[in-house]
């Protein structure tokens, strides 16, 4: 026996070396993911082609350490990198990339630990990368930079470097109040111009000039507004002011010929400020007041708004500005203890008081639109408290604008958040308004050239156009059997639209989506509708138009169109080409992936896009317009091959209501159908169409991380849920339970090791399901609604909205008010049936949750505590609806996995589960260490 064992050992030792000598590589041993792996993964947060299509710039940024920008040469297939780049912009001439270089994170952390002051902390540098030489030049201590939007060759940046003095014995420090040094750099020849004490600056879009505000250097530059002509190299002061004057919103027209800005020229401490609208035109000398509180056309006791950015129409003939009534001011003579601070909640308030508080800053800065004809200088007030919202056409050239008034319907927002709106046409020359339609439940817009107003009406599931010239309103899809509202809507409200692709040339047609296809409608209602993509519904393929030019205003049906495609049956995706003389779009690419088209190079037929599935990270790829010559240009996370991953597949079953359902089953990489695996059910509403989504390791904020668990030998089941009004909890039960049973019947699920997890809406459903079954061995439910009777009368504190609409019209799907029928509120509330729960429950609800009041979590926790049922609740202090701070996200994911490992894998219990973490230890002892097994 001893000789046999010795011989076996020799064979084991010899075989690997023999195999290697024979050329067989050793098998790579992969390891499961842990929470430590989060730091290895990088994201591509910036990605852009140069306009000439010869280079692509993209970042590779870890979540909690320094990243870098890659400049990839698509011609030579080479790349250059610069560390810690942020705020990246590419010049319009494709010659340079400009960016800030941030200080090293570990250095900043170290200095913060030393309690260093802000001025002692390292400053950002400026990086200028030359695509031709592949050299990156750096400038230290840079505060900000700007480049022209549509012209290359120029760069302006502000530096925080201080000067010793200004030469006349006086010193004036660079600061937020005084301004900073502005450097204007010619990127072609390297020449520089310097301007001191600049507070604000802006290039014209076309690169003809630089506009800036300086507080003056007490030598050769006095305070005021300056224009630097980039063509002639000359500087002109266009407004002479005082260093105590305040200027806002420097604005230049598209041609670079006109300038507007807001000026506060009052050097006193008057509480009511009277801003002036200043205007300058090339060749006109100094800027002058174009409008103020005395200008004809401005309502009595109104002012020019200091909170609205003046903007020119595209042709430069109009200037749109804001106005506002004189504000209500606090009596500054009163001491704090003399002020009465009381909220008066009136039952007919437009907005309930919490929403008023959330809107307070917006209301203080509220502006009403006005327009100035720059030829006649006439000012016309367009907006008003009666018609507060004004929408103009894309270029600001039309003779009318669209006015929207929702005042009569604001009270109903308490229980119906979408409410209604009245629509008005307003004449730009007179300001006169004319009613177009009342009680519109939909988002109305002007067509690009403002010949039409168009909207989707939710109650009608129909699109409408209103021809402004004739006053005729047309229901576009009248008589069509196809729905243009969501076909599978399962909330007690009207279905939302699928959207639209845009307008065709000369506003001849409007292109609108149904569930699958693109339809062409005559906005005047004369010609019959026509389906452009004629096979979408028949083949269950969703077609959507891909806009390749960000400045495109109209869809040209005389050209080939690029469409995205998604197959609802196979979940495959890709792209197709639509041609006017072909019956159906021709598929260019369609695979078992998820695609995202990022952009087309402005000057070349080159596309930048990503492709992903569960195994494949969405790295960057380029291809021509036919998706030929496709190649990958980034490799963000090659370390993925070191880890165990998994697979994703569609599962189908029927609900207890006999409704066909789909879901996703994630399996471990080395799945063995003969084994019994623990499984966690994770869900929300419908996720099956995300089959090919990649889930990189990262501390996500609220749900079980699918990849992390699958890598650690779990099954993850993500079932779709459909709902019946009035039965949200039972609907979830009826969908999920048979799906789990179906998988158990396949033989590879350990039926005694199944968990369930959800957050917010699915957290509620999880708590409800636990009152109906003992199927699950453990459950985590985050940010739940435990008691629909108390939650119904609550507030969503982040927005200030009442929660009633949630239950009557939206996701909670009860469809009635508490007084119409209280029983659904009780029957769907897990709190009232907590005594039936036999599953250990981990809750997470944070005390700053602005979506679901955290007292809902408290109600459930106290019920479970009173009933002596095993429960824990995590409250990340100061966090909202989910943990945001990275350390808290990691902590939550760690605790949740420890919880499931203990119940589903019989792992040792962590200390926080055994004894908790007392308040005296909070922030000191985390209790993550595992409790030793008893001897």
From TrEMBL:
Enzyme Commission number(s) of this protein: 3.4.-.-
Domain Peptidase S9 prolyl oligopeptidase catalytic: from-to ranges: 731-906
Catalytic EC class: hydrolase
PANTHER family, per database record: DIPEPTIDYL PEPTIDASE 9, PROTEASE FAMILY S9B,C DIPEPTIDYL-PEPTIDASE IV-RELATED
The keyword Hydrolase appears for this protein: yes
Domain of life of the native organism: Bacteria
Record protein name field: Alpha/beta hydrolase family protein
Swiss-Prot/TrEMBL keywords: Hydrolase
InterPro entries linked: AB_hydrolase_fold (IPR029058), Peptidase_S9_cat (IPR001375), Serine_Prot_S9B/DPPIV (IPR050278)
One GO MF term: hydrolase activity
């Amino acid at each position: 026996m001893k000789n046999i064992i010795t011989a076996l050992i020799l064979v084991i030792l010899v075989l690997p070396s023999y195999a290697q000598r024979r050329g067989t590589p050793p098998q790579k041993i992969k390891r499961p993911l842990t929470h430590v792996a989060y730091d290895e993964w990088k994201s591509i947060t910036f990605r852009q082609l140069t306009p000439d299509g010869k280079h692509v710039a993209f970042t590779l940024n870890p979540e909690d350490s320094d990243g870098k920008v890659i400049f990839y040469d698509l011609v030579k297939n080479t790349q250059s990198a610069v560390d810690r780049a942020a705020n990246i912009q590419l010049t319009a001439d494709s010659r340079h990339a400009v960016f800030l270089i941030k200080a090293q994170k570990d250095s900043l952390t170290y200095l913060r630990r030393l309690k260093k002051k802000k001025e002692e902390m390292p400053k950002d540098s400026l990086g200028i990368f030359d695509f031709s030489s592949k050299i990156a030049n750096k400038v230290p201590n840079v505060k900000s930079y700007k480049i022209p939007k549509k012209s290359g060759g120029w760069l302006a940046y502000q530096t925080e470097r201080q000067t010793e003095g200004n030469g006349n014995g006086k010193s004036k420090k660079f600061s937020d109040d005084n301004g900073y040094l502005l450097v204007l750099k010619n990127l072609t020849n390297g020449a520089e111009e310097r301007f001191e004490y600049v507070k604000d600056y802006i290039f014209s879009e076309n690169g003809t000039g630089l506009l800036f505000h300086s507080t003056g250097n007490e030598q050769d530059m006095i305070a005021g507004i300056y224009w630097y002509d980039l063509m002639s190299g000359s500087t002109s002061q266009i407004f002479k002011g005082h260093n105590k004057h305040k200027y806002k919103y420097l604005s230049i027209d598209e041609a670079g010929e006109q300038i507007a800005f807001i000026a506060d020229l009052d050097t006193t401490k008057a509480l009511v400020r009277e801003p002036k609208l200043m205007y300058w035109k090339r060749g006109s000398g100094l800027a002058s007041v174009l409008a103020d509180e005395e200008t004809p056309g401005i309502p009595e006791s109104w002012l020019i708004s200091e909170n609205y950015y003046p903007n020119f129409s595209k042709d430069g003939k109009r200037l749109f500005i804001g106005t506002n009534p004189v504000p209500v001011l606090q009596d500054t003579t009163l001491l704090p203890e003399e002020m009465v601070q009381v909220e008066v909640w009136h039952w007919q308030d437009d907005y309930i008081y919490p929403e008023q508080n959330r809107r307070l800053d917006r209301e203080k800065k509220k502006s009403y639109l006005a327009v100035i004809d720059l030829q006649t200088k006439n000012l016309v007030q367009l907006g008003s408290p009666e018609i507060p919202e004004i929408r103009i056409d894309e270029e600001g050239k039309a003779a009318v604008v669209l006015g929207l008034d929702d005042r009569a319907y604001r009270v109903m927002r308490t229980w119906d958040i979408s409410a209604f709106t009245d629509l008005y046409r307003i004449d730009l020359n007179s300001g006169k308004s004319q009613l177009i339609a009342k009680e519109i439940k939909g988002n109305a817009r002007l067509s690009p050239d403002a010949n039409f107003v168009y909207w989707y009406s939710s109650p009608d599931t129909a699109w409408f156009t209103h021809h402004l010239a004739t006053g005729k309103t047309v229901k576009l899809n009248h008589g069509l059997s196809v729905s243009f509202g969501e076909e599978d809507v399962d909330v007690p409200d009207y279905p939302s639209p699928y959207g639209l692709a845009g307008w065709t040339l000369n506003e001849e047609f409007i292109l609108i989506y149904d569930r699958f296809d693109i339809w062409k409608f005559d906005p005047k209602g004369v010609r019959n509708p026509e389906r452009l993509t004629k096979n979408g519904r028949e083949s269950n393929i969703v077609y959507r138009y891909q806009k390749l030019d960000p400045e495109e205003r109209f869809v040209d049906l005389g050209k080939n169109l690029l469409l995205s495609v998604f197959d609802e049956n196979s979940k495959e995706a890709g792209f197709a080409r639509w041609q006017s003389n072909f019956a159906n779009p021709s598929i260019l690419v369609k695979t078992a992936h998820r695609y995202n088209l990022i952009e087309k190079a402005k000057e070349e037929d080159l596309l930048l896009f990503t492709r992903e599935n569960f195994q494949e990270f969405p790295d960057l790829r380029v291809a021509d317009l036919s998706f030929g010559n496709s190649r990958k240009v980034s490799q963000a996370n090659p370390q993925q091959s070191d880890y165990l991953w998994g697979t994703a597949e569609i599962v189908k079953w029927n609900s207890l209501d006999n409704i066909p359902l789909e879901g996703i089953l994630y399996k471990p990489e080395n799945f063995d159908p003969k084994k019994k695996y623990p499984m966690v059910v994770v869900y929300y509403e419908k996720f099956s169409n995300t089959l090919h989504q990649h889930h990189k390791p990262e501390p996500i904020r609220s749900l079980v991380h699918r990849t992390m668990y699958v890598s650690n030998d779990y099954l993850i089941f993500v079932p779709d849920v459909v709902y019946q009004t009035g039965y949200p909890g039972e609907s979830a039960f009826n969908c999920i339970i048979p799906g789990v049973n179906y998988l158990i019947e396949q033989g590879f699920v350990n039926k005694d090791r199944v968990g369930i997890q959800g957050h917010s809406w699915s957290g509620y459903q999880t708590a409800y399901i636990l009152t109906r079954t003992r199927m699950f061995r453990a459950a985590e439910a985050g940010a739940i609604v435990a008691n629909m009777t108390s939650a119904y009368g609550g507030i969503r504190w982040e927005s200030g909205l009442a929660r009633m609409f949630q239950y009557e019209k939206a996701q909670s799907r009860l469809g009635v008010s508490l007084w119409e029928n209280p029983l659904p509120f009780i029957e769907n509330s897990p709190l009232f049936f907590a005594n039936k729960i036999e599953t250990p429950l981990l809750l997470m609800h944070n005390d700053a949750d602005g979506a679901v009041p955290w007292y809902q979590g408290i109600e459930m926790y106290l019920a479970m505590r009173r009933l002596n049922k095993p429960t824990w609740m995590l409250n990340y202090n100061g966090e909202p609806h989910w943990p945001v701070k990275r350390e808290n996200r990691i902590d939550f994911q760690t605790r949740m996995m420890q919880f499931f490992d203990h119940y589903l894998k019989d792992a040792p219990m962590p200390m926080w589960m055994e004894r908790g973490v007392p308040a005296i230890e909070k922030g000191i002892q985390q209790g993550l260490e595992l409790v030793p097994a008893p001897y």
